[in-house]
Amino acid sequence: MAKPQETYNKKEKEKKRLKKREDKQHKREERKKNSQGGDLETMLTYIDEDGNFTDTPPDPTKKKKINAKSIEIGVPKREEEVVDAIRKGTVEFFNDSKGFGFIKEIGTQEKFFVHVNGLIDKIQEGDRVSFELERGMKGMNAVRVKKG
């Protein structure tokens, strides 16, 4: 059987591979020689009470005791708005064909959406009405709207 031919290119690639391996070994030995020990204490970093990194451990006398049971995990419950039962206002805009409009409250000048399904009496623009509020998908809606 014939011996595989070693070309100049193959020899050069092999030399580069060997050189790379030797360089890697040399760097590894240098790192081991120059390292300052690998014990845990030299690798630890602490954070002081101001949030800065330091290599000295914190003072145990300044340690604060925290009750783990007092930590609440999750989103705090939102308190529901307490609304007056019956409010008074005027119809600012109402479109009969589309079945919705807006009522402006007399005291606060706030506007509330009203839908035809929330009406007790038939209303028009400019009518004085009394209504109750209910939370809708996009905010507070006027419901149980009647003239008066």
Q: Which key features would you list for this structure?
A:
single chain; 148 residues; alpha+beta; OB fold (Dihydrolipoamide Acetyltransferase, E2P); 2 helices; 21% helix; 27% strand; elongated; CSP_DNA-bd; CSD; nucleic acid binding; Cold shock protein, CspA family; NA-bd_OB-fold
Task: Spell out the blueprint of helices and strands.
Layout: H1 8-34, H2 40-43, E1 46-47, E2 53-54, E3 87-95, E4 100-105, E5 111-115, E6 128-135, E7 140-147
Parallel strand pairs: 5-7
Antiparallel strand pairs: 1-2, 3-4, 3-6, 4-5, 6-7
Q: What's a quick, concise take on this entry?
A:
The protein is of the alpha+beta class and 148 residues long. The chain has a domain at 87-147: OB fold (Dihydrolipoamide Acetyltransferase, E2P), CATH 2.40.50.140. The chain has helices spanning 8-34, 40-43; strands spanning 46-47, 53-54, 87-95, 100-105, 111-115, 128-135, 140-147.
Could you walk me through the main structural features you see in this protein, from its secondary elements to its overall organization?
- The chain is an alpha+beta fold.
- It has a domain at 87-147: OB fold (Dihydrolipoamide Acetyltransferase, E2P) (Beta Barrel), CATH 2.40.50.
- 21% of the residues lie in helices and 27% in strands.
- It has helices at 8-34, 40-43, and strands at 46-47, 53-54, 87-95, 100-105, 111-115, 128-135, 140-147.
- β4 and β5 form a beta hairpin.
- The relative contact order is 0.10.
